[in-house]
Amino acid sequence: MKRPTKRATLTFGIIxxxxxxxxxxxxxxxxxxxxxxxTGGRLSPPSWEHWAGTDRLGRDFFTQxxxxxxxxxIVGTGAVLIGAxxxxxxxxxxxxxxxxxxxxxxxxxxxxxxxxxLLIAMLVVAASDTASLFSAILAIGIxxxxxxxxxxxxxxxxxxxxxxxxxxxxxxxxxxxIVVEHILPNIAPTLMVNFALQFGLAVIAEASLSYLGLGAxxxxxxxxxxxxxxxxxxxxxxxxxxxxxxxxxxxAIGVNRLAxxxxxxxxxxxxxxx
Length: 274
Prior knowledge:
Elements: H1 2-29, H2 61-96, H3 99-114, H4 117-127, H5 133-160, H6 163-170, H7 175-211, H8 223-229, H9 239-266, H10 268-271
């Protein structure tokens, strides 16, 4: 009874995330309307011409949500890549460092992790000259890197204690070769699960930054900015808040289900659990 549940979790996550990927990629080559074109009346309800209605300026709202999917995917992917590069590098350095340096890095990472991801991202964005999509990606990536670094350090130190690492060193293998041939392949499955979770956190963090006016500026139709703009019309045109909210929640749930499915698949300690 356990295997179908695991497959269902992974499949559900793949379907939800896949739908957003398809919509995001489709928005690169086709959109129902010009994103800046006022093609309908202000705050029009959903219709055959405008599937999600129009916003307060008369722009097609479904078009805006599609662009939001693209931005969410760009931010999630970019932030995870930055967090992975910085975090894995720092984590490996800490694993190979002397005890004094390792303790110092570990304490620094614990302090950074104690701060909310959104707060760190806000500080990084505020330190830049102007809010932009790139600054949001960079800020979120830096904020996520502490979590990745701590996990990498723990996993790498465990692998370094294994007998075959000692045998590899005895045979004359260099530390870079050991990292590439032994450590990274062993910690990669766990890191991939963590990266999936980080992706969901990055998407939510970007939406929060955009809601606060610190994310991608107009005309980028971030889900967070769409939610912020819908505040004043939530009672007269609720679709303006419902559509981006559902899109954000569905992607976050999909990514988390995908991460759960990957963890069940790659974690040997969970395979035999009922």
